[in-house]
Write a structure and sequence with these properties.
alpha/beta, Threonyl-tRNA Synthetase, Chain A, domain 2, Rossmann fold, ten-stranded mixed beta sheet, four-stranded antiparallel beta sheet
């Protein structure tokens, strides 16, 4: 849904009215409309504190008819951010149509606050394994589906294979038809244990032979539930894979509602360098999920609103969404033959040619955690 200038001007006037009532010397000088939010930049008078404006966040939200408003400092100015009404989802296929090439082993996550595509290169030394956390409705399963599907879209089966572990059988069921799925989906605790035992054996075999290909991406839905139902042996095997898997080309992508040490084990949690955190229920859960004391994850909107947390860097992004029709398009295209490196599109849509695609890829890969990659 496009935002009209008249609407933005009206919202800016209301923000300024709230500030004026409380004698805060500030005015709106501009801003940006992102996929999920409208951001207003404030010019403030000398001595105006962020804390003073932040104390008015609830009143600003009320004046704009929004559930909440977020006030923060960035790039030397104070910003007021409010959620958009009726924001369109970020469709994975439409997003992929903007990408000329994607480096091997790289997943498409979504777009950042500036609308720039955000990618994650799993083999990078500082990535290795990914933990996706968020409460029901946060969009964590949808993000995992998009991440895994994008790997299949841009990598041949000889390069990447997917191992699906989903004891509840709901999260990854639609992905079973991807040709990259190895051995079907493990849909019970017993099948999950058997698959984990095989992965440990495969990891040890690769270590002996010095092999790393193809990459094995092990996707686990509801990690905490699996550990609770399958017991200590599951936790021990997942811990071993998380500690030694990267050197053997084995990467974990695990989803969980509550990534606390008591539920998933401190050893498991410590070996997921990258966290993709959606909406959580409380500040304590935000701290558990991100490993940061003040990430603000408890204020995320849900429905694909995520933080990427890696080392000291935090990137807010809107997760890509893969609907049933688009998944069917991907499945049919993959069944017709491999097309890694090809540009993807939705039916009836023309591709958007991005300016300087090589520069775009270098910029995207540069911002990933880990050493700068050359995009090969």
């Amino acid at each position: 849904m496009a935002y009209r200038k008249r609407t933005l001007d009206m919202q800016a006037d209301r923000i300024e009215a709230v500030l004026a009532r409380h004698k805060v010397a500030a005015r709106v000088q501009g801003g940006a409309v992102t996929p999920r939010y409208v951001q207003f930049e404030l010019v403030t008078g000398l001595g105006t504190k962020v804390s003073k404006v932040a104390s008015l966040a609830e009143e600003i939200a009320l004046a704009l008819g929004k559930r909440e408003a977020r006030v923060y400092r960035r790039d030397g100015c104070i910003r007021v951010e409010v959620p958009r009404q009726g924001a369109d989802p970020i469709r994975l296929l439409k997003l992929c149509s903007r990408l000329a090439t994607v480096p091997p082993g790289t997943a498409v996550l979504g777009v950042d606050e500036a609308g720039v595509p955000l990618l994650l290169r799993l083999p990078a030394p500082d990535v290795a394994h990914v933990l996706i956390a968020g409460t029901t409705g946060s969009g964590k399963t949808a993000l995992a589906r998009s991440l895994l599907t994008s790997l299949a879209m841009y990598n041949r089966q000889a390069e990447v294979q997917l191992v699906l572990i989903d004891p509840k059988g709901r999260g990854f069921g639609p992905l079973q038809r991807l040709p990259h799925v190895l051995g079907g989906m493990a849909a019970t605790s017993e099948e999950a244990l058997a698959r984990l035992r095989w992965l440990v054996e495969e990891m040890e075999r690769r270590d002996r032979l010095g092999q790393r290909r193809p990459l094995l991406v092990v996707a686990i839905d509801e990690l905490a539930d699996l550990i609770q139902t399958a017991g200590r042996s599951a936790e021990a095997m997942i811990t071993r894979i998380s500690q030694r898997g990267r050197e053997a080309g084995i990467h974990l992508v695990a989803c969980t509602q509550k990534p606390t040490a008591s539920l998933i084990g401190s050893a498991v949690k410590a070996n997921f360098p990258v966290r993709l955190v959606g909406a959580v229920a409380s500040r304590d859960e935000a701290r558990y999920a991100t490993g940061l004391s003040d990430s603000g994850a408890e204020k995320l909107e849900g429905k694909g609103d995520f933080l990427l947390v890696a080392k000291a860097e935090t990137v807010r992004f809107q997760a890509a969404w893969l609907g049933p029709q688009d998944l069917e398009t991907v499945l049919q295209a993959l069944a017709a033959g491999p097309r890694p490196g090809s540009r993807w599109r939705t039916a009836g849509e023309a591709c958007q040619e991005p300016p300087a695609p090589e520069g775009l890829i270098r910029r995207l890969v540069k911002r990933l955690p880990g050493p700068k990659q050359d995009g090969r």
